[in-house]
Design brief:
heterodimer; B: about 250 residues; alpha/beta; Rossmann fold; 2 domains; four-stranded antiparallel β-sheet
Amino acid sequence: MSAIDNTAELTPMPPMAINWIGLWTLIRRELSRLMRVPTQAFIAPWISALMFIFVFGYIVGGRIATIGGHRYIEFVLPGILMINIINAAFLQSSSQIYFQRFLRYIEEALVAPFSYVEMIVGLLAMTVVRSVITAIGILLIGAAFGATSISGILEFLFWIVSVAIIFGLLGIIIGLWANNFEQLTMLNIFFITPLSFVGGVFNTVHMLPDWMRWIAWANPFFYFINGIRHSMIGFSEAPELLGAGFTVTLAVILAVVVWKLFSVGYGLRE
Amino acid sequence: MTIPAVCISHLTKVYRRGTVAVEDLSMTIAPGDFFGFLGPNGAGKSTTIHCMTGIAKPTSGKIEIFGVDAVKDYREARRLIGLSPQEFNVDTFAKVTQIIDWMGGYFGMRAAERKARTDMLIDRFELGPHAKKQFRDLSGGLKRRVILARALIHDPKLLILDEPTAGVDVELRRDLWRYLQELNRDGKTILLTSHYLEEIERLCRTIAIINGGKIVREGPKADFLATGDLEEAYLAATGAEPDHITGAA
């Protein structure tokens, strides 16, 4: 090792209200990790969405009558978009925190001057970024089929961001709880995938038999899909404000749970 | 009155499953000291360090770093500490420069400061030819240097080294010793844990021995050496059988 030279003089750090540079570092670090696995992070959901749009929207949908005055491909696109946003958000936050725990480099953040809120915001910011990138790709694929339209941009952004936050928070909870890969994928396999498929992606509630309709009304995914569909093509089967209120309430409840888990150090600190 | 670099009062740490790792531990480290923290495996060294740095939550007791409460004012306290942990807790796919730079970012350092400091540390630890390599592609000794550089990125006043020379070859160990001595001469307070008694004896001015979660002996190195060598003092303090260690009949 070389002899001691004059070290760079560091400017004293002021007492921090918010560790903005640290927050940005959390995001750019995770972006760097995602850039190491672009196929898994972005290409896979885009190809999956392309197949759904092509097979269900274009081929099968070409033989289905319009729904509420909209072509079937226009009807299914918002649902396909929402499924992928949900998956991207959940996979991002759950795998990010799980791998940081698994490889123990979560300790780098634990010994740094971060508040719990900053750590959670850092995780969620990255979740929203990944969800938005995934959504942009799917919207472009939909545009190639002439199926992309957005009737209310603010409403559309509300649904993308709020649903990304909800599933980002759920992913954090699972990422903190899981002690192996099996546990990490459990919620996705038994809860997210089934509920998203019966949440009205491919059909309206009125296409269901009477006795099954309660499943749709009781399914939170129905409100997410219905909400984004309304923001894109103006078609809705439930009061939008009810869905939005439910979504915000759920996000707040999950945020409180996650904050509590961080404050007691669950899955993080020994 | 001089504010101690570290002041731990009645620290107790009980893990969730009921294991008492540290019990009513109190110790003080003077600013500028080179402090050796010795003890057998599982004695509570790493747990104490984890409580100081935020990796573990103390069950009770108080920890102050240069007068700053490590629990209540944890953000301020953590800025004063640099930790080189016993195990490699890094993203093994990240590159050397990224690992050091990200840590600087976590501590709120601006890009220009990080760049200057990262370049200086890479140069000082002779990591230049490996700067763009992934951590997993480095040898054990190089990995150790990266971890040390990461601990120093924000120029902490207190440097905590948990077994920094474990698995390191003789040449690098001596280089590290020299470097640590230089850092200490420059005014950094250093807390060092090691199983190499020679290392503690050579580097440290003050020594504490922990056993079963409690400090069993603490004082200036000279006191430990007054009646024999450090190994004898260590074995006596931890209650180990010297005969067993030396293999005598």
